[in-house]
Amino acid sequence: MTIEHEKSEKININAFQNDLISWFKNEQRDLPWRKDQDPYKVWVSEIMLQQTRVDTVIPYFNRFVDWFPTINDLADADEDKVLKAWEGLGYYSRVRNLQTAVKEVKEKYNGEVPSTPKEISQLKGVGPYTAGAILSIAYGIPEPAVDGNVMRVLSRVLSIWEDIAKPSSRKIFEKAVRELISHEDPSSFNQALMELGALICTPTSPSCLLCPVREHCQAFFEGVQNELPVKTKKTKTRDVQLIAAIITDPTGKVLIHKRPANGLLANLWEFPTVEIHHPLQNDREQVISLFKESMDLEISLNPIIGQIDHVFSHLVWNMKVYTGTSNIPLKEDAVWKLVSFDEMNEYAFPVPYQKMFNLYQKSLEE
Questions:
Q1: Of these residues, 4, 9, 46, 285, which one is catalytic?
Q2: Whole-structure pTM value
Q3: Is residue 261 part of a domain?
Q4: Are residues 37 and 143 in the same domain?
Q5: Do 202 and 63 have their domain in common?
Q6: 143 is catalytic
Q7: Tens digit of pLDDT for each residue in 100-131?
Q8: CATH number assigned to the domain comprising residue 113
Q9: Spatial separation of the C-alpha atoms in residues 338 and 254, rounded to whole Å
Q10: Domain limit, last residue, from 197, 222, 247
C-alpha cells in the first residue's frame, strides 16, 4: 500500500508504520503518563505538555495526579489548590479550562472521558491535537494528533513545503496522518511520531543517520532536511515596565493581591504591582504616588533591591522590585491578604513573583 503525495513521491505505508512503531516500542522514554492508558492521565499530560518541555512536566504530572488522582477529585477541588498544583508551569488558562472540562465530564458523562471526536472536542480547552491524542492513545481510535513535532516530521518525510506557522496548514498534515496512521495500533503510531520529533527529527540538526524511517524520507533523499519545515517567525514581543513592592505590616506579614479573574495570570496572587508608561524622574517619590493612585496604598519605600525580567510568549515584563512598609493599617478582603512567610505556600504565585520573593529573602540575609 502506498500514499501518493502531490509531487508524486510514494511511500510504502505498511513499511513506514512497521519501522516507526518497532523503533518506538524499543526506544520510547519511560514517562509516567505512559504507565497505563487512563484517558484522564493522558489528558492531564497532554495539557501540561503544551508549551512545556517533557523534563519540566514530569514532576508536575506526578504531583498533580497525586493530589487529584481522578476526574472527580479534580472536578471537586478548590481552584486555589488547583492553581497551586500548577504554579510555575505558566499558561494558567490551560488548567482552568481543564478543571472546567472535567466538571462537565463528571456531570454529563458520569466521570468517563468521552470517546467520540464530536463529544471530546466540545470540552473546554480540548482542541484538535488534544482530542486526537486522547482518542488514539487512550482509546485506540485512529484519529490524527498533529502538533509541532508531527508537522516537522511529516514535512520532511513527505516533503511538504506549506508554512507550519499558518493554522490552515494543519489540515494538510491531519489528512496525511489519516492516510498513514496504523489502524491496528494508532496509540503507538501517534506517540511514535511525537517521539521521533522530540528525539531524532529535531528542529535543528536532525539525527538522520539514527532515524528509523530514513529510507522513507523525501527530505533526506533530496538533502533538504535542514530547510524543512517552513515556519515564519512570530511577531516581536512587547516590553512592559512594572514596579512591584513587597510591603510588610508591623507584625512582619506580607501584603499580597489577587489578580483579576480575566486576562494574563488570572486569579493568581501577586505582590502589589503598577505599570509605568513613562520614565520616572524621582523614582521613589513617584512610585509611592503611583501606588496611592492605582491601588489606594499609603506606603513608605526602601531603596530598590533589584529588577526581574520575565519573558512571556507575547510580552516581556521588566519589573523593578522595592520593599517597604504601610503607613496605615492594612485591611484584608477577597483580593487583599496579609500572610506570613509560611502561609505564602498556600497561595499560587506566577514565576516572576516567586523570583521576586527569592530576591527579597536574599536582601534580608545581606
A1: 46
A2: 0.86
A3: yes
A4: yes
A5: yes
A6: no
A7: 999 999 999 999 999 999 999 999 999 999 99
A8: 1.10.340.30
A9: 5
A10: 222
